[in-house]
Amino acid sequence: MKYSLFIATCLLSFPCVATSLxxxxxxxxxxxxxxxxxxxxxxxxxQYKDNNTATSTPEIAMAQAPLLRKQGHYNEAIELLSPxxxxxxxxxxxxxxxxxxxxxxxxxxxxxxxxxxxxxxxxALANELEDKNLQAQSHxxxxxxxxxxxxxxxxxxxxxxxxxxxxxxxxxxxIATNFYNLANLAHRLDDLSQSEYFYxxxx
Length: 203
Hints:
This protein is mainly alpha-helical. Helices cover 70% and strands 0% of the residues.
């Protein structure tokens, strides 16, 4: 029986991304997003953009794209984010989250080649940032992609790399996700004792 790898989702669309958008606006959008009122959240962002032409358009696009993705409008989200890849003014962390969001949209459309390109771009940026949590998350995401391609060897390779990077991490959600992924892989490879060990570590 095939198990799907667990992918942790964040409550906020773009956590830790620097932004000049008002916190009151972001809080309002987040509240609406959590209530499932995605169209209302998008309308508020569009109205803000119309009334604040001096505000950085990339920041508004980065807030809109995850909402469009959650509505299933993957191509619209990609159209918003793709031009931002060429903006040198964005921080590497912003670029990382753009690559991460793009790969989600491509993967949801089962466009695995495009998704893999953005997975690799996200990993390269995580390496440049020397952020072990982002590096681990990138390897874990790549492991999930290879799992969907039924390449268990490469999937395990990336999950093990993620585990090593998380050795001294305090991101317990990411650690648990990684152990859960390893447990599922071990189970599928008929290594039941290893699978049980990883499941216990995930708890």
